[in-house]
Write a structure and sequence with these properties.
The protein has 136 residues and is α/β, with parallel strands linked by helices. 30% of the residues are buried. The protein has helices spanning 23-29, 47-57, 74-84, 106-115; strands spanning 10-12, 37-39, 65-67, 93-95, 121-123. The longest helix is centred in the middle third of the chain and has 11 residues, at 47-57. The protein is 29% helix and 11% strand. A 5-stranded parallel sheet has the order 1-2-3-4-5, with no helix packed on it. It has a single domain, classed as Ribonuclease Inhibitor (Leucine-rich repeat, LRR (right-handed beta-alpha superhelix)).
């Protein structure tokens, strides 16, 4: 069993093929509240992975940057993320690039922007968000 680390401030696990199931192990090891940067860019997370990650995000109150770009969290994962980010009051940077987020996720994006008062950068590029405009 790996002992939990309560002092780690920056963790980069980008391109590590972390699955939605194994991200729960990462959360278990990272039980402290000192984490400021978490990079899970280009892994294999889906909405279930975001649910597993959300348990950790509730205690990562010092988190300033979260990168979950190029996973496949979709609208359901984004909705879970929006709910739990209310605990990350210091969050400044959020990367959601390339996550299969559609127009249905716009309300969750609005929630994130309203609740994360320190948010300075939000990247939702390369998502199939299509604004529905009715043409007469």
């Amino acid at each position: 069993m790996i002992k939990s680390n309560r002092q780690l401030q920056h963790l980069d696990l980008s391109r590590c093929l972390i699955s939605s199931e194994s991200v729960a192990d990462v959360v278990e090891v990272m039980s402290g509240d000192s984490l400021q940067t978490l990079n899970l860019f280009f892994n294999e997370l889906n909405s279930e992975g975001i649910t597993n990650l959300s348990f950790g995000l509730m205690v990562y109150t010092q988190l300033v940057e979260l990168d979950v770009g190029f996973n496949d969290i979709g609208v359901l994962g984004l909705t879970y993320l929006a709910e739990v980010l209310t605990y990350c009051i210091l969050l400044e940077v959020l990367n959601l690039k390339g996550n299969n987020i559609t127009f249905e996720g716009v309300h969750a994006l609005i929630d994130i922007m309203e609740n994360c008062n320190f948010l300075q950068k939000l990247d939702v590029s390369i998502n199939p968000i299509v604004w529905m405009v009715e043409v007469f």
